[in-house]
Amino acid sequence: MTRSFLHAAAVLLPASLLAILIALAFGSVAIPVGDLLAVFQGEGSRLHHTLVLELRLPRALAAFAAGGLLGLAGALMQVLLRNPLADPYVLGLSGGASVGALLAMLAGLSMFSVSLAAFAGALLSTVIVFGLAHGTGSWTPTRLLLTGVVVAAGWGAMISFLLAVSPTAELPGMLYWLMGDVSHAQNPYPAWGLLVLVVLLALPLGRTLNVLARGPMQAAALGVAVRPVEWSIYVAAALITATAVMQVGAVGFVGLIVPHMLRLIFGNDQRVILPASALGGGILLTLADTLARTIIAPEQLPVGVITAMLGVPVFLFLLYRSR
Amino acid sequence: MPHTPPSTHAGTPTHEAPGLGARSVHEQPGPRTLLATRDLVIDVPGRPSGSALGLTMNPGQCWGILGPNGAGKSTLLHTLAGLRPARSGQVEVQGEHLARLSRAELARRLGLVFQSHHDGFPATVLETALIGRHPYLRPWDIETAADYQLAHAALAEMDLGGLEERLVDTLSGGERQRLAIATVLTQDPRVLLLDEPTSQLDLHHQIAVLERVRGMVDQDRAAVLVLHDVNLAARYCDHLLLLFPDGQACWGPTTSMLVPSALERLYNQPLSVGEIDGYPVFLPRGGTTPEP
Q1: Comparing B152 with B12, which gets the higher pLDDT?
Q2: Reported ipTM
Q3: Residue A139 domain boundaries
Q4: Is A82 left (phi over 0), alpha (psi -120 to 50) or beta?
Q5: Considering its fold, how many domains does chain B have in total?
Q6: Contacts of A225 in chain B (CB under 8 A)
Q7: How high does pLDDT run on average in chain B?
Q8: Phi, psi of B145, deg, nearest 5
């Protein structure tokens, strides 16, 4: 375990730093490495200063934090449901957030209120999905996943409805939000704080989650207090998803692809996979957002399009290679 | 081998096998008792009632649970492990009420091998055996060299040496079952509960597993095995519990429980009885075959 933990850290920590540096260097204007270093030493041109420290750095940090939260949320939900297909997007949490955000936009509220509405929508969706799936018995992974998929479809219909009745002028902003967009991200530091906190809380829980992945009965027989652990994961996953969606909108695939890819490389120990998913999600979204800003600069693409276009082939390739 | 009538708990009028109506005094729990039940009635859905079990399992005892499908054998095992509430009565582990023990404390005293295994995300064979150490580790602890040693030793004993890095989902059914037993050996509890531990094993490994369990029991532990093979039970268990489909039960030392008529009633299956190498042997007869 220690070896694969160090292995993952040795790969992912430098990669995270590199991803953020790439995000700082590229965009509508490329900044050479020398100039980038100059900016950090307090030298360099005024334009580069503004570009790097005031525009790109907060955005890169926001993308990294949101991606990290989504990766971690996916990894947690997959253990909770014992199903590698679980993901905030699949379970309808992002859909609930989207409906909340669109309603706030229709009401003409500020960007901050839109984020809050998204947060509330994601939480509401979590309560609905997990509450309905729990019913009178316990959470069976299949029922939870099916409930999530059906609720996601319901949110999808409401999104279509809202788009259909919205004034044309509002549509581009709404579509951007739906596809995921980092440019409206607020202050990234609360998200970073939450990310660090949840990783620190998840680390000592990792071995328990390894046992829980083998089913509630087996876990209980090995000394795990199953109910409290399941509820903690559930609450943590809901909170961090809502926070991520509030920041960057409905970005899909991060929570699905990142943990899965990392499992293929580093194995299935949750003590490795949970922190690795946080870093991996951060790297993926940071790079995806850099691409989104660069490909058709000065225009920007929604980052959700990039995560899907990057994530799907990588995922398929790894799946193909693993057997 | 003399077949004395099996002892039984009070009130088994439905069993007309010889001696089944007799009462006997069961062993009372003592200070060294590892697992005891007091008036325990297990909760089998749809079954109105059942015998109240007053079992006493002491160090050095190996108990076999025999009974037809659906008689509640697994339910009893899960109830003994505290994974399922009893309808009434209680379970005591080393003299303490099961409900008062924390899950982790219970897992240090008592280990359970399930009939089937869900692996969630495919882990390696070594990782799977190592989860047996979970009850002993605090949240921040990492498995020590000693933990690894225990896991490696258990895997070697279960003939899984060299497969440590294999993914569990690539194992055969029998290998997976031996891995589950290796996990409980790594857990090293005082009481072992094994649900059909030999159901998927070849002849050699059936014996190897039961010999190993017997070895554990002889080191001051106790084991409870659900078995479908009466002959293996006769050979390796010193006490037997017969669970009838209607919830009635009788239990006692193996020598007093292996009454052919009681076993025939238990399984609703005519049996031929013999003796090989000093062990009683029971073979099912064709249901329609007339008495020879």
Answers
A1: B152
A2: 0.85
A3: 2-321
A4: left
A5: 1
A6: 102-103
A7: 87
A8: -60, -35
- Please give the full DSSP string across B122-159, using - where no structure is assigned: PPBHHHHHHGGGGGGS-TT----HHHHHHHHHHHHHTT
Over residues B185-242, the pLDDT tens digits come to 999 999 999 999 999 999 999 999 999 999 999 999 999 999 999 999 999 999 999 9
pLDDT at B15 over 50: no
At position B47, the amino acid (one-letter code) is R
Chain B contact set for A262 (CB, 8 A): none
- CA separation for the pair B234, B60 (Å, rounded): 16
CATH code at position A196: 1.10.3470.10
A203: nearest CA partner in chain B: B140
Domains: count for chain A: 1
Is residue B173 included in any domain, yes or no?
Answer: no
Q: How many CB atoms lie within 10 A of CB B42?
A: 28
Region label for A119, one of left (φ > 0), alpha (ψ between -120 and 50) or beta (otherwise): alpha
Q: Is residue B176 in a domain?
A: no
Owning domain of residue B28: 1-94+190-292
Q: Say if the Cβ atoms of A215 and B111 lie within 8 Å.
A: no
pLDDT tens readout for residues A150-196: 998 999 999 999 999 988 888 888 887 887 777 766 678 888 999 99
Whether B50 contacts B42, CB under 8 Å? yes
Instruction: Give Cα B164 to chain centroid, integer Å.
Output: 27
Q: Which residues from chain B sit within 8 angstroms of residue A269, using beta carbons?
A: 123, 127
CATH no. for residue B292?
3.40.50.300
* CA distance to partner chain B, nearest, from residue A285 (Å): 25
Q: Is residue B178 part of a domain?
A: no
The share of chain B scoring above pLDDT 70, in percent, equals 89
| Residue B106, domain member (yes or no) | no
Six-digit token pair at A89?
């997007």
Taking the C-alpha atoms of residue B111 and residue B116, their distance in angstroms, rounded to an integer, is 15
